[in-house]
Amino acid sequence: MSATPPTMTKGSTTGDPGNAPASGGDGLKAGLKNRHLSMIAIGGVIGAGLFVGSASGIAAAGPGILISYALVGAMVVFVMRMLGEMAAANPTSGSFSAYADKALGRWAGFTIGWLYWFFWVVVLAVEATAGAKILHGWVPAVPQWGWALIVMVVLTATNLASVSSYGEFEFWFAGIKVVAIAAFVVIGLLAVFGVLPGSDNPGNGFDFLTSHGGFLPHGPGAILTGVLMVVFSFMGSEIVTLAAGESEDPQRAVTQATNSVIWRIGVFYLGSILVVVSLLPWDSKEIAEKGSYVAALDSIGIPHAGQIMNVIVLTAVLSCLNSGLYTASRMAFSLGQRGDAPKVFAKVNARGVPAAAILGSVVFGFISVGFNYLWPDTVFKFLLNSSGAVALFVWLVICITQLKMRGVILREMPEKLVVRMWLFPYLTWATIGMIVFVLGYMVVDGGDNREQVLLSTLVGVLVLAIGLVLDKRRQAAAKAVTAAE
């Protein structure tokens, strides 16, 4: 394998040689418009975990959860900057898997690509079940498994129709999330300072940040506990780099997404959590019982807050499902193109859609949904834990890959280095240290965190072993062909 990444011109699907143009018969079509990519970039960082999981983080760390979010947010900003540097120079549907393939070796691209695919297939089951619970609560006549089936079928059909259909759905899903969070932050801050007309909240400013046991009521160590609880809600920010290969102007889309990630995390995560812990004491029973956002809206006096949040959470779930299926299929497509997955995954239909990769991904998604209903505490829990630390593995591989790819880009295509990682290589090494520290702390913390790291590592080692065996067989076959010639 050459360490030199292939060049990529506008309209091509991946950096591998021999691929048809995006408008050609065998290539992915550039069906994503700039507005699609912009909203995918903005909405990709807002997952259902922000709405559902923030209450437990607040309970664990108090107002200090803001530091936890800031630390993880900084880590994600750095990782996205590194990924943006590589993606702007060479946009491809395989993204970091393709870059690892070129920079570290075929075994690396194979391993991280399949682990990432596995992660999103399991996420499909989690999100389909979460969405089905909400829909079943509204229409109990349809069983919960029926709603999960309906949701999966509809979004599968959307992804099979065309990439522009995925982009359009995601544009509106993400748009609703963005508008909802932005409105929450604005209305919440007005209430915090007591200038919101008709608010039931007394508006104590930022008093609640320190008045109930201090800013760190459980001590500084709780910040690290909070980090473990919020880190996985950031997964998905890298999706825009996979989608860029099917956009009208990949380099511009990646550059804009990379440059905007700081304010996206600042507003949507830090801004909204700041509003919650400023409107209510961190130890309020309402936050624990209703959830952080519903409790905050109730404190202001907004009617039907619970149902409003259900609509927003459902939108976030559908967005995650839509993007998860898209992401898994494009990773399978890229692996197929590189010979690391069945060749049928690399084929596209007349609409420029990798139908086999989509159907292959959704089949495993349906199987995972079945496991979630049949054996939620055994088989599905194993799947969930064995994919739990994959996000951190992906970020770690991105960092290591960027260390090598910077030099390659400078040698081969310096004009494409339009996005640069700050303080290279020092900040890259610091980010690697942060990720390794989080993984180590998960092991020390014990419980589900330790199980996630150990099981994810086990699965990773198995996939790596398969990749190394296949690589050796390919090398042996190549040598045999050379000898015969």
Explain what you see.
The chain is an all-alpha fold. Helix content is 71%, strand content 0%. It has 18 helices and no strands. The longest helix has 38 residues, at 447-484. Residues 1-26 have low confidence and may be disordered.
Summary tags:
485 residues, mainly alpha, 18 helices, 0% strand
Annotate the secondary structure layout:
Elements (H helix, E strand, L loop, with lengths): L33 H10 L4 H14 L3 H25 L5 H9 L2 H33 L5 H18 L1 H30 L28 H10 L8 H5 L6 H30 L5 H6 L1 H9 L4 H33 L17 H20 L4 H9 L2 H23 L13 H20 L1 H38 L1
Residue share in helices?
over 70%
Content-based structural category: mainly alpha
Mass-distribution shape: globular
Number of strands: 0
Average pLDDT, rounded to a whole number, is 86
Task: Please outline the major beta sheet.
Answer: none
Please state roughly what percent of the residues sit in beta strands, choosing from under 5%, 5-15%, 15-25%, 25-35%, 35-45% or over 45%: under 5%
Note poorly predicted spans: 1-26
What Rg, in angstroms, do the CA atoms define?
22 Å
Question: How many helices in DSSP terms?
Answer: 18
The rounded distance between the terminal residues' Cα atoms is: 20 Å
**Elements, N to C (H/E):** HHHHHHHHHHHHHHHHHH
Offer a concise description of the structure:
The chain is mostly helical. It is built from 18 helices and no strands.
